[in-house]
Amino acid sequence: MERTKILFIVLMILIICVAAYIYKPAEEHPPVKRYASITGLKPDKIARYKYLHAHAWPKVLKKIKECNIRNYSIYLKNINGKPYLFSYFEYVGENFTADMQKMAADTTTQNWWKETDPTQLPLPDAVAKGKIWSDMEEVFHTP
């Protein structure tokens, strides 16, 4: 009976320690920053774009995670007969600029962009900045 009590106490201590580790106070977690952007898609390249993303390169996916991007999604929507892409991701790192530079410096990611960029039609504000995707402003989020 004594051994059962000791095992129970050890188990309870272990559960408390694990719970304390998992459920850290919010100030100990890096803040999540949400990003959304939009770009056009060449109508004759829709199938190619979908194919590329259905077969995303593992090294590109790994680099995305290494650069602190989570929950990354891309959506396709036809508006007035023209295809547009909407992207959303959450950034959980501490230096977005440095992480994006790290991603841009990656040779595999550069090769991936050589495949995807020619399928897209940047909006005028993105073209003016030499970019493919136009940033979007978050106007609502449920906490």
Folded structure, characterized:
The protein has 143 residues and is α+β, with helices and mostly antiparallel strands. The chain contains 6 helices and 5 strands, in the order H-E-H-H-E-E-H-H-E-H-E. It has helices at residues 2-22, 46-54, 58-66, 96-105, 107-116, 124-128; strands spanning 33-41, 69-79, 82-91, 120-121, 134-135. Strands 1, 2, 3, 4 and 5 form a 5-stranded antiparallel sheet that branches. A hairpin with a 2-residue loop joins strand 2 (69-79) and strand 3. The mean pLDDT is 89.
Main features:
143 residues, 5-stranded antiparallel β-sheet, single chain
Secondary-structure class: alpha+beta
Unreliable segments of 5+ consecutive residues: none
Number of helices: 6
Q: What form results from the Cα inertia axes?
A: elongated
Please give the alpha-carbon distance between the first and last residues: 48 Å
The SSE order reads HEHHEEHHEHE
Our Rg estimate from Cα atoms comes to: 22 Å
**Major beta sheet summary:** 5 strands, antiparallel
Beta strand count: 5
Estimate the helix proportion, in percent: 40-55%
Percentage beta strand: 15-25%
Mean pLDDT: 89
